[in-house]
Amino acid sequence: MMLVTFQPGVASPLHHHPVAGLNYIVEGMAESAYGDDTPRIYHAGETLQDLPNIPHTLFRNPSKSEILRFLIFTNLRPDQPYLIVP
User: Would the pTM count as exceeding 0.70?
Assistant: First the structure.
C-alpha cells in the first residue's frame, strides 16, 4: 500500500503498470484515462483500477487549488517498480 500526494495541477508522465492496482481517492479528485479511453474524474471516496501493461495516458490532479491524496493497493515483488515510464 502506498499513499501518494499530487499538488494542484500535477500530472504523471505517460507510463504503464506491470501489475494491476486499486486506487482509493482519499482527498481531492483525480482525472485518469488508459489508451484511447475518454478521461474520467474520480472524487474522494471513489476507487479506480490501474490496468496492467496498458498505456496510462492520463493521470493528474485537475484542481487548481486542492491537493489530491490517494492510496494504491497492489502486489509487487520487492525489486519491481509500480510505474514504468517508456
Answer: yes
Sort 7 into a burial class: Cβ within 10 Å, 0-12 / 13-18 / 19+.
exposed
Query: What whole-number distance in Å separates Cα of residue 79 and Cα of residue 57?
Result: 24
Q: Which CATH number describes the domain made up of 2-74?
A: 2.60.120.10
How far CA 6 is from CA of 41, 70, 78, in Å, comes to 15, 9, 24
- The ranges assigned to domains in the chain are 2-74
Are residues 50 and 16 in contact, defined by beta-carbon separation less than 8 angstroms? no
Per-residue pLDDT of 20-71, as tens digits, reads 999 999 999 999 999 999 999 999 999 999 999 999 999 999 999 999 999 9
